[in-house]
Amino acid sequence: MAPVNISIPSFGKLGLMSRHTVIEDPMSLQSNYLPSEFIDREEEEAALQSIFSEIDQKGPRHTFIYGPRGTGKTHLVLKQLNQLPDSVATCYIPCHRHDTEYKALKQLYETVTDDQISSGHHTAALKREIGKRTTEIGVVIVLDELDFLMLNDGDDLLYYLSRTNEFNTVLISANHDNINDCIEERTQSSLQPRQITFDPYTSEELYQILYDRVQDAFAPQSLQQEALTYLASAIENPALGFDWLRAAAEAADSVITESNVKETRMKGLRHYIDAVLNGFSEHHRLLFQAIKELSREHDSSIHTGQIYDQYQELCQAYEEDPLSNRRISDLLKYLELLDLIEADYHYGGKKGKTREIQVPKL
DNA sequence: CCTCCACTGGAACATGGGGTAG
DNA sequence: CTACCCCATGTTCCAGTGGAGG
User: Fold this and answer.
1) What sign results for the dihedral spanned by CA atoms A250, A252, A254, A255?
2) Which nucleotides of B are covered by protein (CB under 7 A)?
3) What is the pLDDT of residues A312-328, one digit of tens each?
4) Exposed e or buried b for every residue in A260-270, given b needs 16+ CB within 10 A?
5) How far apart are alpha carbons A163 and A60 in whole angstroms?
6) Does the CB of A284 fall within 7 Å of any strand C atom?
7) Residue pair A310/A294 in contact by the 8 Å Cβ criterion
8) What digits encode the pLDDT tens for the residues A254-274?
9) Cβ contacts of A262 within 8 Å, gap of 6 or more
């Protein structure tokens, strides 16, 4: 990628060596940190604002947001949720952790009733209880990472939510640019969402995003401009950039240099992947490790069978009982939705029916 | 044209967590 | 306590896939 030329203030010359560490305020480098200003998202923000301003007026609103991972979808929606009046109840559901109708309904139930429940209830009973509490109150339900829900019984939930009048929904996906690809016709006809698309950031925008966070997080003059320029051109997802910056800061003496950044790529990546896989099972992690090891050994792409063999070896090493290959096939789908791997599906050919899998550069 | 590769992905089932009702 | 229901996670079984090589 060509070097980036941006006319924003640089960090100037290296500051005097100081004794304190580079990181002053680590909070603003957390990926869940909500900045007050967003870079180049004016249109999307205005579109969301206009939809949210109509809530409670003329029936329910449904919105579908598509954009690759790391384009600010979740952050912008959360910001808008915070600005809604208190009369509107909100429920944010990250579907990669709540990937069935029951789990999502449980979250919704706990939000509207302020009551914890365990498993074992009928979904119909939950819906009845939820319905009782939400008459005439507007509720905004955000289903983030919708694709994980759609792997299971998400359609039933969407159908239910679109059929009653109390629910406004915001559906967020990083993998389907058209929601009709993954919902049934009955749901299509009652949902009819408005769509907002988030485009990937350019390197210039990524630079600006990182720059803003660095201002809050790091001591003054503790980062060379070339280091940040390099970083911004090497990533697509700001979240990876934050983890990478943290790794670089830990490796630096008092000023982060370009070589600090280059040397800490693997460490930053590891932090990022750990965060993405946090909350998933040990088997998800072992499976991903198996794929990483194979992709290091083989230049060409790798296939499901090889991966399963490698996974079984890892299980033996860690004294875990391996899951069946049928199950692993499903877990692979999860890793794919998380954009940790890329898969090409082959339904025939010399190699038979399989998936060709690669680890993207990230 | 036929066969075969090496899985995919749907469906039924098992087990273990929990629930309510009588 | 018993009977019977639900959901989560995972296994077992198996039909189906479509291009390359014979």
Assistant:
1) negative
2) 5-11, 16-20
3) 999 999 999 999 999 99
4) bbeebbebbbe
5) 10
6) no
7) yes
8) 899 999 999 999 999 999 999
9) A230
